[in-house]
Design a protein that fits this description.
By secondary structure, this protein is of the alpha/beta class. About 45% of the residues lie in helices and about 15% in strands. It has a 5-stranded parallel β-sheet with strand order 2-3-4-1-5.
Length: about 190
């Protein structure tokens, strides 16, 4: 899908969330110095939680593992951790475990991540649309930093639409003329969801 093809690969390609990844902002500094510990990204759909996790993995040369709380269970965690230990031992490479919709796990299931986070076997990046104070296990939450992602502004969405029309990963050359009013309308209707 085009959305996947257009997904930013670097911090410079990211649109929005400048309060976190703008010049000299805390998350950007943690990424650039490769000092990121476990984090929870909290924000509405389409704000870049998954994209940001993938960008972090690329920027820190870490192995990226996607884990869906909806589709996968606790038994897969052991396999992921074993692979993470081998990756660190043989290639000196960290593993970022991205847990999409971490709030879908109950508190006991979330406990399964705790020993691996504490030992440094994995760096956990949890994504949630729900308030982590209520939906994420307090022990796991205390070992993570929470970053709040905001809905994208209408100009941000317009910028993404223009990029999709001009970039070779998108629809480059398909539409020779761009209707500014149409882009503005589409961007407004997106309501902050890229």
């Amino acid at each position: 899908p085009m959305a996947e093809r257009m997904r930013p690969r670097t911090l410079e390609e990211m649109v929005g969330q400048q309060h976190l990844i703008g010049k000299d902002k805390v998350l950007r500094r943690l990424i650039e110095t490769d000092r990121l510990s476990s984090v929870i990204f909290w924000g509405p759909p389409g704000t870049g939680k998954t994209t940001l996790a993938q960008v972090i993995a690329g920027a820190t040369r870490s192995r990226f593992v996607f884990f869906s709380a909806v589709l996968q269970g606790i038994k897969e965690i052991r396999e992921i951790v074993q692979n993470a230990r081998e990756e660190r031992a043989y290639h000196d490479r960290k593993t970022l475990l991205f847990v999409d919709e971490i709030h879908r796990f109950n508190k006991a299931q979330q406990d399964a991540f705790l020993p691996y986070v504490e030992k440094g076997d994995i760096t956990l990046i949890g994504a949630t649309t729900e308030n982590p104070s209520f939906e994420v296990n307090s022990a796991l939450l205390s070992r993570s930093r929470v970053f709040v992602l905001h809905p994208l502004e209408t100009p941000d969405i317009e910028q993404l639409l223009e990029l999709a029309l001009t970039d070779t990963r998108g629809l480059s050359g398909t539409f020779p003329e761009t209707d500014r009013e149409a882009l503005a309308f589409l961007a407004e209707q997106a309501q902050g969801d890229a």
